[in-house]
Amino acid sequence: MKPTRIALIGTVLFVLLVLFQNCAGNGFQVMSLEGGTIDSASQEPGDMNNDETPQPTPTVSPSPSPTVTPSPTVTPTPTVTPSPTATPSPSPTVTPTPTVTPTPTPQPSPTQPEVKRTHFYFGGGKTITALELDHGTGEFRERPSANFSGGGVGWLSYEPTSKSVFVADTGGSTLQIFGHNSTSAQLTSKTSLTTAASQVHLTIVAAADHFKLFGSSYSRAEVSYYKANKNLTSLSRQQVLAQGAGAKTHSSSYDAKRGLLYVAALGLNKVIVYRVSETGLSNIAELNLAGARTVVYDASFDKLYVATEIYTGPSYIRIYSINSSNNSYSFTAEGSLAMPKHGGDLKINHKYNYVMATARESGKESIWALPINARGAADLSRQSFSIRVDQALPRALEITADGIYAVVGMNSGGSEGIAAYKLSFDGNKNFISSQKVFRKAAPSSSGYLGGVSIPLY
């Protein structure tokens, strides 16, 4: 080989060697991944975010030796795995919530026959208006009215063992007792007895050989205790208790479990509790409650329910449990519902578990309902409801045994002296809607003061 060619080859080799050393000295540079963390501000609601720290990108160390050696095998740049923060964590498996099947509307049990008809009686002045509801068709029919021999109907009560309707006298001293015909709805006068004057409410308790009667007089501020013989031909006064001027004694309710009588003294802002003996009443406790008007003890729930009549603010439906220890009694609040002023009558819808009451505030006339649970206390899992009433002073309220109809007697004249509403509920006893299905004009400008309903099975 010629020297010049050899020299040229050597020069080329030398240049290649220098280039190789320069590359080895500087090393192989690998670009790093910038920004390894996801900015949480860029996430959409519901996205998952992992906060682990990103790992640094590896580099290749430079070769220390300048000796010419065969070119090293270049290891490929490691594949850059995205930072763990860049990979959303998989969402946890969500177990679907089981579908809640609505509880079907309870059907009457064999021991609780289905109500077929209901008779209603509303009293105003000297007239007792009679209605019949056919639950199969939903039709209301007027039945023959009855005449009251006293000054004016104050209250009506039904006593099932004697099949009698007792009518107290708000304008006099007459207690008229009618026999009830379950077929025709006709009321036939049995007898008229004499009581203390001006009774606006009457509670009747059947004993083995007699009846106990407790009358409340609003205008005379007193509660009276009578006994009637079993055939209802005589009446003997046991006691008359004056409750003080302005007491406005309005209603009473008997607690057979404890032998107690609860009396609402509206003007005294309390419910007075009496122990009942065969000869008289003894005051043993009091429940302070502003505007206590209509008091109802319910044996199935063992609770005391009260509708208040307030004129300066809302009236209430209130619930109390009854506590006793060594013949001492106290009360524990179990829930309440505010409603418009001038609370009125109160009834319990046992079928769908509501305490219902009327409110008479002008422009806000209505029926209100507080849901209750299996213990009879307020049920916070369901909503309360109200039904607008189109005539003034809804006073007397009746709820049918099947819980579907609310019938109201107005203490005012007009085309809707009596109005009936059909109520709808879902399978969980939640209120859905109401529909007015019947109305009847009042017999006089004063309308109706009291009412009673009798279910027929």
Task: Lay out the secondary structure.
Blueprint: H1 3-26, E1 117-124, E2 127-134, E3 139-147, E4 153-159, E5 164-169, E6 174-180, E7 187-194, E8 201-206, E9 210-217, E10 222-229, E11 235-242, E12 249-255, E13 260-265, E14 270-276, E15 281-288, E16 292-298, E17 303-308, E18 315-325, E19 328-339, E20 343-349, E21 354-359, E22 366-371, E23 385-388, E24 394-399, E25 405-410, E26 418-425, E27 431-440, E28 450-456
Tell me about this structure.
- There is one protein chain.
- This protein has about 450 residues and is mainly beta.
- About 5% of the residues lie in helices and about 45% in strands.
- The protein contains one helix and 28 strands.
- It has one helix spanning about 5-25; strands spanning about 115-125, 125-135, 140-145, 155-160, 165-170, 175-180, 185-195, 200-205, 210-215, 220-230, 235-240, 250-255, 260-265, 270-275, 280-290, 290-300, 305-310, 315-325, 330-340, 345-350, 355-360, 365-370, 385-390, 395-400, 405-410, 420-425, 430-440, 450-455.
- The strands form seven sheets. It has a four-stranded antiparallel beta sheet with strand order 3-2-1-28, with no helix packed on it. A four-stranded antiparallel beta sheet has the order 4-5-6-7, with no helix packed on it. A four-stranded antiparallel beta sheet has the order 8-9-10-11, with no helix packed on it.
- Strand 18 and strand 19 (about 330-340) form a beta hairpin.
- The longest helix is centred in the N-terminal third of the chain and has 24 residues, at about 5-25.
- It is globular and about 50 Å long.
- The protein starts with a helix and ends with a strand.
- The model is unreliable at about 15-110 (pLDDT under 50).
